[in-house]
Each structure stands twice: as C-alpha cells, then as structure tokens.
Automatic annotation (TrEMBL):
Family the entry assigns: Belongs to the group II decarboxylase family. Sphingosine-1-phosphate lyase subfamily.
GO BP, one annotated term: carboxylic acid metabolic process
Endpoints of the signal sequence: none
Claim: Transferase is one of the keywords in the record: yes
Tree of life domain: Eukaryota
Source organism (scientific name): Hanseniaspora valbyensis NRRL Y-1626
Name of the protein: sphinganine-1-phosphate aldolase
Cofactor list: pyridoxal 5'-phosphate
MF annotations from Gene Ontology: pyridoxal phosphate binding; sphinganine-1-phosphate aldolase activity; transferase activity
InterPro entries according to UniProt: GrpII_AminoAcid_Decarb (IPR050477), PyrdxlP-dep_de-COase (IPR002129), PyrdxlP-dep_Trfase (IPR015424), PyrdxlP-dep_Trfase_major (IPR015421), PyrdxlP-dep_Trfase_small (IPR015422)
This protein's UniProt keywords: Lyase, Pyridoxal phosphate, Transferase
Presence of the UniProt keyword Translocase in the record: no
Pfam families per the UniProt record, alphabetical: Pyridoxal_deC
Lineage: Eukaryota, Fungi, Dikarya, Ascomycota, Saccharomycotina
Length: 449
C-alpha cells in the first residue's frame, strides 16, 4: 500500500462502494443530452460551482467588491482535456482580438515554465501553437524575471501565460505575482494549472502558494477531480473568469444536416456516470474531509523533505559511513517531493530501480535533472508507509553503494546503472534522441497487441 507515486489516490472501501452504486445508477447518462438527464446536468453544474467556491476561498474578505458570480467553468475528461481547452480558448480569443494574426495564419505562443505539463506541448501541436519555455530558477520555479522580455520578444503573438500550482516534476508552485502583473499589463490570458494541486490547494496553510480567483487576475484554472478530488478516473474541471471568455472554447455548428450542434468540450457524448460519481464523492468527503487529507499529505511532504535532506545515514559493510547523499529539488509544499544525488556522478535511476525491484516502491523518473519523484496520496501519507519508505530508501542506498564498490573492486570503470538509466541516456543524447521517440511509439503499439 502506498508504494506507487501518485496513480491511485485512495483506497477507501466505503467511498469505492458508494462510487460503484452511483456509477451503476447513471451508467447510461450522457451530458450531450441534458434534456434526457436533468439530474446529470444539475450534478455537472454542482461540481463547477463547488470548484469555483473552493478556488475563491481566499481573499474575498480583503476584496469586498469581488463578485464571484462571473466565474464559471465546465467539466472535462481529465487534466489533459482541461489544458487542451484552456489553450484552445486562449488561441481563439487572441485571434478574435487580433484578426490580422488570424488572416496571416500566425502561430500563437504559449509562454510556460520548463516544468509545465506535457499536455501544453500536446495542445500546441494539436492547435498549431508554439511553446516558449521560461527557464527555471535554482528553486525549480519559473524564472519570472524573464517573463516580460519573453512577451516583448514575441511582439503581440503571445496568447497565453501558464504557471503551475504545483508542477508535476518537482511539486513546486510558480510564484504568482509576476504572472498576475504581466497578464494585467498586456491583457494576455493567464492559466494556472492546478490539475495536480486540485483539491489540496484550497486548504494550504501557506497563502503564498494558494491560488484564488479573488486575489489573482487569472483567466482560467484547471483542477482534477480524479486526483485529490478522489473521484474515479475521467473527471476534471476547467474554470474560467467569465462566460464571455469561456465561450471561446465552445464548438458551435449551425449548418449541419443533423441540426444545431454545440459542445463545450472536446468530446461529443460524455460519460455522465463519471460526473455523478465525482459529485457524490465530493459530497461524501466534504470540506472537512478534503481539509484533513490535505493536512495529512502536506505533513508527510514536510517529514519526507526533512528526512531526505538531513536524516540519512548509510553504513556500508566495510565500515564507511555516508551521510545525507541526497538533496530535494526546490521547496515543494503540496504533494510531490523530488530528489536526486548531491553529486552528478551518481545515478538516481539506478537507485530508483533498486527501490522498485527490492522494495516495490515505484517512484517516477525525471529528466533535467535526472531525479526521482514521489507523489504522496492518501495511501502513502500514512505514518506507517513514510517510516517504511525511509527504511527502504536507506537500504536501497546501501545496496547502491555496495554495488558501486563491487564494480570498482572488479576493475570495472562504471557500474551497470540499469535499464532506466539506459533509457534516459538514449533520450538525453542529441545523437539518439530520435530513438527515444521510437521507443515511446513501440510502447504505445504494444499496449494494443
Ligand atoms: C500538473 C499537472 N497538469 C496536468 C496533468 C495531466 O492530467 P491528466 O493525466 O489527468 O490528463 C497532470 C498529471 O499528472 C499534472 O500533474
């Protein structure tokens, strides 16, 4: 239990039973036909309204004139769809505001940190856009000091600024202030990707990393119900600052033989059962439940950061003692902790392979830099699991160093760093980078064989 990084977010039997009952009840539901499924329409809107309320929960008291009634949204099939739609919406809006760019078929740009999710690249490739990558600081957040120069350099073609709260690789949250002021100054839409922070963010104690429509000028925000909302896979929410802006993501066809057609998201028919499951999940867990889970997960993040940076002593058979060989990347506070060796001649992929093969802990390998990340969930944030993980990490480090010594004694120049390192070696080399694409393609093919 809890040995997987992210992936499965809870194992609450009562909740799974409830979800199964609700799924069965709504199994034929489809939001494409609100007239046939009025209850689904209600539950769909309920999810958006609750998400709006949670993502405004901070700052209203200092901003009495703030009116949340403009905020709106849609439910989608997951984080990726929410992000695709956020990009499409910004692109359509910018073309509408700058018709010459559309006439010239000018590719529009998304400025995003290097740590932004792969879904933004997917959006840029689907919608003929281009990603401009903001480098990261030493704290693994967007280097916002470069934001304005990037906007200026791209001379009116930037249609979207993106930040993450938090990002997938390092679990760090990009600082809000500069995105906020640049969005205001240049009138460029700003999307905050809260797909991962989802229903943890509204309960964070550190207000500097807590996104809220009431304090920020963001235009859209994605939050995944199927992550820390604890729902079944297939539901996310894309929130928008107002109905005018949201309309740029809608698809409308008034000229079709099949009648007037409109759809708010990418899919046509939509599996209503998932929306119903998500709504009942939200009601079942409730505000206090989300708050409790959030506190437990962020407490585990704090514990793990402390342990990885300062709590490790590895004693080798020959009496050598190695103290704290690992470092945390940045200062994550929400749910993900990423770490790597302090010295570049070590291979954290090999360490990850040992953790997986010997102890069953499957952490995610990262690139740039090579590192491992552990996304904590309700399964992994228990005291029992954290203590077990800490022991397994020390044991894995011991095996890692013993193997390294063994290789040295045998006169081998380098230990075999294992399959993961080999794979990432291929991906990271300019000579073999194309092969990595082929590996991905083959992997995807095999899934259907
Ligand atoms: C920050 C972030 N954004 C977007 C996504 C994409 O979400 P999905 O896998 O639901 O499409 C993820 C997934 O882990 C994520 O961590």
């Amino acid at each position: 239990m809890g040995k997987l990084s992210g992936g499965i977010y809870h194992n609450d039997t009562a909740l799974i039973n409830l979800q199964s009952i609700v799924f069965k009840k709504f199994i034929l539901g489809n939001q494409l036909h609100p007239d046939c499924f009025p209850m689904l329409r209600y539950l769909d809107a309920f999810l958006v309204k609750q998400s709006v309320a949670l993502y405004c929960s901070m700052g209203k008291e200092n901003n009495p004139s703030y009116d949340i009634s403009d905020l709106c949204g849609v439910t989608t099939s997951g984080g990726t769809e929410s992000i695709l739609l956020a990009c499409l919406c910004a692109r359509n809006y910018w073309y509408q505001m700058n018709p010459l760019l559309k006439t010239r078929n000018q590719k529009l740009k998304i400025i995003m940190p290097e740590s932004a999710h792969a879904a933004f690249y997917k959006a840029s490739s689907y919608f003929n856009m281009e990603c401009c990558l903001l480098p990261l600081t030493n704290d693994y957040v967007a280097n916002v000091n470069l934001l304005e120069s990037y906007i200026k350099k791209n001379k009116g073609t930037v249609c979207l600024l993106v930040s993450s709260a938090p990002n997938f690789p390092y679990g760090t949250t990009d600082p809000f202030a500069m995105f906020n002021s640049m969005s205001l100054k240049y009138g460029i839409p700003w999307h905050i990707d809260c797909c991962l922070g989802s229903y943890l963010n509204p309960f964070l104690q550190d207000t500097s990393i807590k996104p809220s429509f009431a304090t920020l000028n963001c235009w859209s925000l994605s939050t995944d119900l199927h992550k820390y909302g604890y729902s079944a896979k297939g539901v996310s929410v894309l929130l928008s600052r107002n109905k005018n802006y949201r309309a740029y993501q809608y698809y409308k066809q008034t000229n079709w033989n099949g009648g007037l057609y409109g759809s708010p998201t990418l899919a046509g028919s939509r599996p209503g059962a998932l929306v119903a499951v998500a709504a009942f999940t939200m009601l079942h867990i409730g505000l206090n439940g989300y708050k409790k889970c959030g506190f437990e997960i962020s407490d585990s993040v704090i514990e793990l950061k402390k342990f990885v940076s300062n709590g490790i002593t590895v004693k080798l058979e020959n009496g050598t003692i190695i103290q704290n060989p690992l470092k945390i990347l940045g200062d994550p506070k929400v749910c993900v902790v990423a770490f790597t060796f302090k010295y570049s001649d070590e291979s954290c992929y090999f360490l990850g392979d040992i953790l997986a093969k010997k102890f069953g802990y499957h952490l995610s390998p990262l690139q740039k830099p090579a590192a491992l990340h552990y996304a904590l969930t309700r399964l992994s944030c228990t005291k029992e699991n954290i203590e077990r993980f800490e022991k397994c990490l020390i044991e894995s480090l011991k095996e890692y160093y013993e193997k390294k010594l063994e290789a040295k004694e045998k006169g081998e120049l380098k230990q075999n760093d294992g399959d993961t390192a080999a794979l990432y070696g291929v991906a990271g080399s300019t000579v073999t980078a194309g092969v990595a694409g082929k590996v991905i393609e083959t992997f995807l093919d095999v899934l259907y064989e």
